[in-house]
Amino acid sequence: MALALSGCGSTDVSDAPVEHKSFALSGKTLTIRSGQSSVELVPADVQKVEVTRQVDGWVVLGNGPEPRWEMKDDTLTLRVKCEALISDCAAQHQVKVPRGVAVVVKGDNGKVVASGFRTPLTLDADNGEVTVRDSTGPLRLGSDNGDVVATGISAKSVSARSDNGRIRLGFTAVPDRVDTVSDNGEITIDLPGGSAKYAVDAVAHNGSTSVDVPRGDNSGHVVKARSDNGEVTVRSAN
Questions:
Q1: Residue 138 carries which DSSP code?
Q2: Cα(187)–Cα(182) distance, integer angstroms
Q3: Considering 66, 174, 204, 225, which has the largest number of Cβ atoms within 10 A of its Cβ?
Q4: Could you tell me whether strands 222-227 and 49-72 are parallel, antiparallel, or unpaired per DSSP bridges?
Q5: 3-class secondary structure for 88-112?
């Protein structure tokens, strides 16, 4: 059977109609469950969680895209259903989070980006890159299939994991604990120089290891980096 696909252009979610919705939050932690969408997080001077979404796509012999957003028990669900023999669906959500609220994201098939947070962030993506910029709160970051990148961070505690992707961390202040693990990807950690010393445990089972920071086995600034397949680099940022 031949399928005529004329008229089915490529999906460009940036040109899709923009929708807005606000959700009340009762606690101090927002949990987001997303699917088939990128998610951008920003702290803002708002009373409610404010969401902007754009959805675009087409299907052949199926249904979609069918977007869904709802809040229940401080868990915000942002999903787009797209089930068909042939399809091209995409979505993006921007979430403005009230200041002082911690965020937990469990993403499925889409990148997660967060910028400017002072509260704890726990960000996981099953299939997508996780990016954090200019944040000061504790970080727990993970991706099953994508890079984990955090730049301009001054968090005291950072945990980063990637099953299939690189890990790159750039610090602007001396951390107390950094724990990174990559199954298949290089690890690069840029640490502030100066007088600080670091207790570094760096291992690459299949790749080179380079440590170029002041070291002290008894230091309270502990840095662990382990890669099964990829280079490990721990170096001074200046």
A1: -
A2: 7
A3: 225
A4: unpaired
A5: EEEEEEEEEEECCCEEEEEEECCCE
| Domain boundaries, position 87 | 17-105
Task: Tokens for 118, please give them.
Answer: 């002072």
Place of tokens 């499925």: 108
Residue 11 lies in a domain: no
Taking the model in full, what pTM does it have?
Answer: 0.91
Q: Give the distance, in angstroms, between the CA of residue 78 and the centroid of all CA atoms in the same chain.
A: 15
In terms of Cβ atoms closer than 10 Å to its own Cβ (0-12, 13-18, 19+), residue 76 is buried
Beta bridge partners of 75: 31, 72
Is the same domain home to 188 and 217? Answer: yes
The secondary structure of residue 12, as a DSSP letter, is -
Do 60 and 80 meet the contact criterion of CB atoms below 8 Å apart?
Answer: no
- 100 and 65: one domain? yes
Counting as low any pLDDT under 70, the low residues of the chain are 1-11, 58-59, 61-62, 64, 84-87, 238
> At a CB cut-off of 8 Å and minimum separation 6, what does 51 contact?
20, 21, 22, 23, 69, 76, 78, 93, 94, 95, 96
